[in-house]
Amino acid sequence: MPLYEHVLIARQDLSNTQAEGLIEHFSTVLADNGGKVVENEYWGVRTLAYKINKNRKGHYAFLRSDAPSAAVQEMERLARLHDDVMRVLTVRVDEHKEGPSVQMQKRDERERGDRGDRGDRGDRGGDRGDRGERRERRDRDDRN
C-alpha cells in the first residue's frame, strides 16, 4: 500500500483533548477503510501564516499512514466536512522516516535551549569600556 503523511489544522478554540480526539477519529476512518496509521504526533497550538476563517492560531496534528488511496480520499472528504478542521494536507511519500518529525525535533531543541554552533554570544563586538574611551577623546577634542 502507498505511504502518506497528513497534516491537519483544527480550530484554536478546541481543547487539547478535543484536538487529540480528532486525530483518533481520522485514524479510525483510515482503519475502517483498510489502512492503518503508523504514527501520529500532536504538534500543539501554533500561529498561522495568515488568517483562516478568522482564526490566527490552530491545533496542528501530523499522521503517518499506510493506506489505499480510497481510504485517504474518504478521510480527506470527512475532514473537509468537519466543522473543527480548517485545513488538511496529504502528501504521498516513498518511505516513512524513523523517529520524530522535523517539527518535533525543532521543538525538542527549543526546550533544551540548544543553540547549535552559534558559539559564545557574550562578546558582541565591543564593550562598555570602548564607549567611555570615545567619550574621553571627544572631551579632549572639545578642549583644544
CATH top level assignment: Alpha Beta
Number of strands: 4
Helical percentage: 25-40%
- Measured on Cα atoms, how large is the radius of gyration? 25 Å
Total of DSSP H or I helical runs spanning 4+ residues: 4
Beta-strand portion reads: 25-35%
Tell me the strand order in the biggest sheet: 2-3-1-4
Globular, elongated, flat, extended or rod-shaped: what is the shape? elongated
CATH topology, by name, is Alpha-Beta Plaits
List the secondary-structure elements in sequence, H or E.
EHEEHEHH
CATH superfamily: Ribosomal protein S6/Translation elongation factor EF1B
Number of domains: 1
**Average pLDDT taken over every residue:** 82
Query: Tell me about the biggest sheet?
Result: 4 strands, antiparallel
Structural class assignment: alpha+beta
Q: What is the end-to-end distance?
A: 86 Å
Write a brief structural summary.
The chain is of the alpha+beta class and 144 residues long. The chain has helices spanning 16-32, 69-81, 102-112, 128-143, and strands at residues 3-11, 36-52, 55-66, 85-93.
What does it look like?
By secondary structure, this protein is of the alpha+beta class. It has one domain (3-112): Ribosomal protein S6/Translation elongation factor EF1B (Alpha-Beta Plaits), CATH 3.30.70.60. It is built from four helices and four strands. A four-stranded antiparallel β-sheet has the order 2-3-1-4. Strand 2 (36-52) and strand 3 form a beta hairpin. Helix 1 (16-32) runs antiparallel to helix 2 (69-81). It is elongated. The mean pLDDT is 82.
